[in-house]
Amino acid sequence: MTANALAGLKVLDLAWVVAGPAIGRSLADYGATVVRVESSTRIETARFMGPFPDGFADPNRSALFGTYNAGKFGISIDLRSEGGQAVLEDLVRWADVLVESFAPGQLARWGMAPDRLHAINPRLIGLSSSLMGQTGPYANFGGYGNMGAAVAGFQTIVGSPDALPIGPYGPYTDYVGPRFGLVALLAALDQRRRTGEGCWIDIAQAESGVQFLAPQIAHGAATGEYPGANGNRDASFAPHGVFRCSGEDEWIAIVARDDAEWETLAGLIGGDATDARFATLAGRKQDEDRLESIVAGWTAGRSAAEIEAELQGLGIPAHRASSSEDMLADPQLQARGHFVTLPHPLGGESVFDASRYTLSETPARYPRTAPHFNRDRDFVLQDLLGYEASRVAELDAAGILR
Amino acid sequence: MNGWLSPYRVIDLTDERGLLAGSMLARLGAEVIQVEPPHGNRGRRTAPFDAEGRSCYWSAFAAGKKSVVLDLADAGNRERFLALVATADFLIESETPGYLDSLDLSREQLRAARPDLIHVSITPFGSDGPKRHFADAELILWAAGGPLHPNRDNNGVPLRISVPQAYLHAAADAAAGALIAHLARVTSGRGQHVDISVQQSVTQATIGSHLAAAVGHAGFSVLNPPQTPGTKAKLDLSGSGSRTRRSKWVVRDGLVEMHLGMGPATGERTNNLFAWMREANALPAELDDWNWVTLPKRLESGELNEESLEFARGAVARFLADKTKVEIQTEALARKLLASPINDVGDLLASEQLIARGAFQTVTEGDCTRTIPWAFAHGPDDMFAQASPAPQLGADTAEILAQLSNTQEIDA
User: Fold this and answer.
1) pLDDT band with cut points at 50, 70 and 90 for residue A259
2) Total count of domains within chain B
3) How many CB pairs (< 8 A) connect A and B?
4) How far apart are CA A215 and CA B49, in angstroms?
5) Do B190 and B249 share a domain, yes or no?
6) How would CATH label the architecture of A10-212+336-397?
């Protein structure tokens, strides 16, 4: 049996919702001891968001919370109280890494500014995740996830060219920010190994989002042209669309990557599809409405599964627009073990995503579900921090552990 | 010291589907050598293009790398390539599963050249499984991984993001997977294979919706939250109309995103907006006593209704119509409004915040200049390398291959 990649790494996770907690989740998968501190009186947003087992809303059972916090230990501490802040100091002394996503300046208001924490623990690697970053004129411009997509340039590029933009699904920059944050953090761990020095990393979701528009930034600066919403079309390919199939709310995505793939597809569709004007990309782009209606006419009478199998059999990119039911039944995701199921300590099961990195020698491990409130209080305070049981009882009686 | 990862060398064989991974490591200081075929990497021919037809995609995601031309399809180059791999800490590739094996460059053969190699594969569906050979395209993976299905256009058709995103999620994951494997190697001395599936990477772009069936939550959507049992029919928070119309406001130079929140969580923010309108004499008398924190009670009692909300919406729309995005963002910051500008790329390039934080760097790439995002985090000064451009084809071939022959002579 091989050791875990990050065995021995101690992580204090003060983050909430998605962008911050996603980082600690990845560390926990590879053997880090991740202690998640939260409040059970000011409950974090993700616990209120579904999906929930059997559709029954319960803040201890949110699948969104479950997937971003699997593998972590959980304790509730009132960080507004002095006693709570003293416990937090002990956790800072214990930790290698601290991840937080409070509004910029909140830690400092609790007397826990980075300088102070580094005085307590000079080797600490801190990471702050926020919408705009910890510095700059708009550092305190805060808000909900949909605002991240708006400020980062993603609202304008999702929709139809002739209508108000729709925007991406959910808080898009929450999906992007932690990916850059995790890489920065892992590099910091390697750097600390060589220098012994801690540091503080500042991740702005808005800036992370801009990284995923980097070619358009370069292009915009060079040409003054900025992308808009273009439905499902793409300037480099046609057809490039999502077409209705025979089943209820069933859709298939189809792309012809070159003229040869279109020729094969046109041969299958027959009729108007074989029009010689469609033989080149330029010809297909010129009459794309008609092209798409021909493809749509062909898909309408077939199931997505049938089209996917037939086109993939011919080497043409096609896949159903997978619903969550489709994903659960997807033989590929099954073969890859994507959905991990563990018994939940409060009964039933917890299902969450597997790690996105399949490591051949030190694979991810899933020793425990995301914590329900205060699940690991005694383990954290007694086993990790060495508190006597009597002290835990005192803290509890003082109302600090909630 | 020029970047935290400056001790390390990376061989990068990825095409446009994986270039970002090596670029992230390069920006952190790693020496990243893009090994390209004689006709150049496909990323050099990936949109968008400038007026001269040069790829801005390449400029953005090959920035900071070196370029060595070595045709792997020519068996005569195999030993030379393996000698290069022997000098590397990481190898990142996005080849079709099985292709490298066909060149006698299997994982085992690569690790024979460099026993502690971290070998990262980025593939559309993963290196194994029944769909590993499926034909791929960005839209196809967005469809297979979950984020396409729940997002709908005004006609109910599943809707993508118009700028390709799927491969970027996977490439960023590849950089993280490489470093996790590296930290394992620090203790074990052993290399390993890191397998990234684009399909699995993009599952993270659904805010958990893709887990609904797995946990048995029928009909779940974050756009239409389920009815809480025992409550009345859900109020439309800001009048009739589509999801888009409820949150988008047309202002002088574009659009602003803003929900007119009500109730204890966000009502105060809408009160702040009304306070601004009152100061500007733009709040109709009928709305003067509105308190958005307690508004739900007045709606439930029937004292106010959808029509009243539509009237309020109209007043807000008229108030915002002659203001600019920057004006509104400034007030949103000062007054704690839940409003944000809907920025396009031009706004990003001009953004006071992004400029103040040094988000963009301008580099000279061949005979043109390029403005690109560089540092993806803020931290100590030595964290990132100096910004440098995407390489010209084969710019470093002579130097890197000369190092190899020197090494081989020393070994001999």
Assistant:
1) very high
2) 2
3) 511
4) 9
5) no
6) 3-Layer(aba) Sandwich (3.40)
